[in-house]
Amino acid sequence: MSLPTWAERVAEATLESSPRQVGAVPVVYPLMEELQVRQTINGLRWSKSDIDLGRVVEVLLLNRRILSPQPFYRIGEWAEQTVIPQMFGLAVEQLYDQRFGRALDELHSVLAEAWVEIVAWAVQQEGLDVSVLHWDTTSIYLEGEYEDSDLAKYGHSSDGLADKKQVKLGLDVTDRERVPLLYRMLSDAQADDTTVVPHLAGMPLFLKRPECAALAVCPLVVGDCKMISPAAVATAHEHHLYYLGRWETSNAVEAVLRHVSQAELESHPLDYRPLRRFSTDQSFVPYCGVWQPFPVTYHNVTYEDRALVVWSAGKQRLDEEKRKACLKRLLNRLADIQEHPTGGATSVASTPHTRSPWRSAAIPPKGWSTSS
User: Fold this and answer.
1) Hey, which bits of the chain come out as E strands?
2) What is the value of pTM for the model shown?
3) What pLDDT is recorded for position 153?
4) Residue 342: its pLDDT value, please?
5) pLDDT under 50 in the chain at which residues?
6) Sign of CA dihedral 191, 197, 203, 205
7) How many C-beta atoms lie closer than 10 Å to residue 150's C-beta?
8) Where are the beta strands (DSSP E) in 56-202?
9) What crossing angle do the helices spanning 72-80 and 53-61 adopt, rounded to 10°?
10) Cβ(206)–Cβ(116) under 8 Å?
């Protein structure tokens, strides 16, 4: 006699006299079965407990990511109001906080491998497009002391919670489906530009897995300026990966920018159109771009890459507004010095030129530079 399917188990649970919450279980649980979450985890870490580790993880996933996230000591109460105990053949008494805590401890040792196996299976079964990937890092703040953690550190908080310890998460997301692919847990104290090379070096290992080998793809990895460095470029070439990102300002970048004239840019409009909508009184001005050679040297090896010099009306408008604001602050400062010529005098102002308002103005205010 065959076992009942998940749909039959849900139907049986909902026909009982006591009302039960169904929520998104009929939608989400089939995906978890398709991804073989339970089988993968149990294959990596078999448990002799009354509930296997894979099943406990399924309960946690349904609680924390789908229906109603609860602290561990309340998951049993929550489950009692849902169809989950009947679906899985569990007693509510089996779902207690220490059981979930032990499950997370057991899961930790195999979490990275379990994630890679599940994601690789998803790539194969669902046909995920991994030809373009977006890589970035973000900080996650934690509640608690975490005194023994090598990753949780105090640092700059984008959430405005400087009193909380944080960890850093580096994550790849597919461009088309926006599905998380590979991740790295990092110390919050680790600089973003040091995370890229290990990530790029690890990507070919994932693509060589049996589930992904048939794809025969060399992904384009898209990131911000912190991702682009000579070391990262060398790693991308070594592992046959493409990269796309903005170079930070340097002498080499400035030389490329100066080499392209405004007339040359205007004669090369780009087909790209942003997805955002423009107001009716603002017509879209196309972006313009010109390809230029951009050799990158790392450890005495030069890689003949190229850079796209891009012009946009919006960036030009912002630059003009910034220049006007900086110039206004400078003129206001000059006017103030002319009105109060001795206002900036110091104890060594005995020589005539130290009182000169023009000499004082030679030091521009913060935020202004002659290159703007």
Assistant:
1) 132-141, 166-174, 180-187, 220-222, 242-244, 288-298, 301-311
2) 0.75
3) 87
4) 61
5) 345-372
6) negative
7) 8
8) 132-141, 166-174, 180-187
9) 80
10) yes
